[in-house]
């Protein structure tokens, strides 16, 4: 767990560095001086990880409890510094703006009737809001934004280039298409228990979150759950991985219900036989295992007591039971499960390995094509068979035609690549290969940076070209 | 905007203090693997010095200019007295305990003395954990408040 957590944290630090590097390219003195202050802060955060990362190395040997606890604390301190101090103050820097590929991704998945906007946020969180309504409620002068909904999604600045986490924007889009939820609870025991507006509001918020999770899960499958778990892993004790708030059900329940839905619909993304994480079976079990380990660490060392408002336990238990019964009922009918073919996904991972954008895929039975070609060759001398040959040739061409990949296939392949290729490679670099100086640590971070940039670029290119391919292929 | 509030100042101060203890724990862990890192040992020495100074000011009952930070640290520890007892330490004895550990760290740093036993080192690590956890827990509580003020979290 600690190694994956370290790699996830390093990835966020690298993404911050990349954001600042791009900002530097667009800037001149004196703005560069400001950016350099940020760079130096990020460098310090990165350096503070050298000690704990060294302790997690395979050759360090056993680590006793006090040391382990301090290492984990350091990881959390580093993330909190990056999130609450650096990321929260990115508004002072003129940086990236939303990429066209992000719009392509969201519009391609939802084909919304109204325009949507995607804004980069200084806060490390994903949100959805009706911007007009927001201003209407905030301004000191009368303002009428009009009746039409102006959906705006908020993407943390450091995730701007990372398609693997655009999945959470899909959850945010889910908030705009929820079904009227009040009917679900009206005639149930829990609905009758909660007569106050506040109670109803809480129930609606919880259901809306689950509904948005399920919409994203249906569209993106295991990729969404992987993204969700890595997001909560880093946020950690805020206010606790297992706590319920008035706005959100606890992450464990959300993870469990999503796992249950995937299992019932036989959707999984198994690791290849040779994968380092083969023992976990598939990607969802792998991340769930890490989540549970992270929770155990919190329970053991970090949490004084679990705070629950008095009304929560009973109502929440009933809410959970009911949601399990009504999974299909609360998600809109038009959202269907994505078809994720395991073999195909593994082949797509192979394409990423070969640095080929996975915009399209040719599922070809080579033997069949060669056999057919052989037959055609034998018939070539016979003019009478010309028509037959032409038909056969068309069939061969059809066999070789590439089909555009869906965005869901692309993102799932991306997550699988991250688990099967990036994690093992970087585990080797940071925790096995010798790192005996600050320079060696910097070099290791640079190597990780190259991996991240390469995967981001390939996935973004895949999304864009799959979209173009889809238009021409009338898919 | 950039003038820190009392809460932010305390948060920063607690976090730094807790980090000193973590560094000391890393340094002592290294020692068990026969590696000596002066920078990490220095963090431990500073942690002990600050603890002792806090107790001294607390006992005097008078806070001079520049001493408030130390006083507040000890105040925080005295409000977590029970947690420290649970860990097997006595806050009243902190000057002696801290002095003993400080001398050990100085000795390791100056004389490269590798003769301390594993149990002595682990006891020192336990000391740093016990006296830094109240600061860590307080940091987490403050962060929770900051995040709840910012709006919805875990919105994934």
Features:
heterodimer; A: 475 residues; mainly alpha; 3-stranded mixed beta sheet; two-stranded antiparallel sheet; 20 helices; B: 156 residues; 76% helix; globular; disordered C terminus
Describe this structure in words.
The complex is a heterodimer of chains A (475) and B (156). Chain A has 475 residues and is mainly alpha-helical. Chain A is built from 20 helices and 5 strands. Chain A has a 3-stranded mixed β-sheet with strand order 1-3-2. A two-stranded antiparallel sheet of chain A has the order 4-5. With 156 residues, chain B is an all-alpha fold. Chain B has helices at residues 6-32, 38-60, 68-79, 81-86, 94-111, 118-150. Mean pLDDT of chain B is 82; it is low at 151-156. At the A-B interface, helix 3, helix 4, helix 7 and helix 11 of A face helix 1 and helix 6 of B.
Write the layout of secondary structure elements.
The complex is a heterodimer of chains A (475) and B (156).
Chain A lengths: L1 H24 L5 H17 L2 H6 L9 H22 L13 H11 L5 E6 L5 E4 H8 L12 E6 L10 H8 L7 H5 L2 H5 L3 H24 L1 H14 L15 H14 L18 H20 L9 H14 L1 H4 L11 H12 L6 E2 L4 H14 L6 H15 L2 E2 L2 H25 L6 H35 L3
Parallel strand pairs in A: 1-3
Antiparallel strand pairs in A: 2-3, 4-5
Chain B lengths: L5 H27 L5 H23 L7 H12 L1 H6 L7 H18 L6 H33 L6
Unreliable stretches of chain A (pLDDT < 50, length at least 5) are none
Greatest interface: A-B, 39 and 32 residues
Give the C-alpha Rg of chain B: 17 Å
Distance, first to last CA of chain B: 30 Å
Question: What amount of the residues of chain B lies in strands?
Answer: under 5%
Question: How does the overall form of chain B come out from the CA principal axes?
Answer: globular
The oligomeric state of the chains shown is heterodimer
The 3D shape of chain A can be described as globular
Structural class of chain B: mainly alpha
Radius of gyration of chain A: 25 Å
Distance between the termini of chain A: 41 Å
How many β-strand runs of chain A?
Answer: 5
Topology of chain A as a string of helices (H) and strands (E) = HHHHHEEHEHHHHHHHHHHEHHEHH
Structural class call of chain A reads: mainly alpha
The biggest beta sheet of chain B is recorded as:
none
Strand content of chain A: under 5%
Order of helices and strands of chain B: HHHHHH
Mean pLDDT of chain B: 82
Number of helices of chain A: 20
Strand order, sheet with most strands of chain A = 1-3-2
Low-confidence blocks of residues of chain B: 151-156
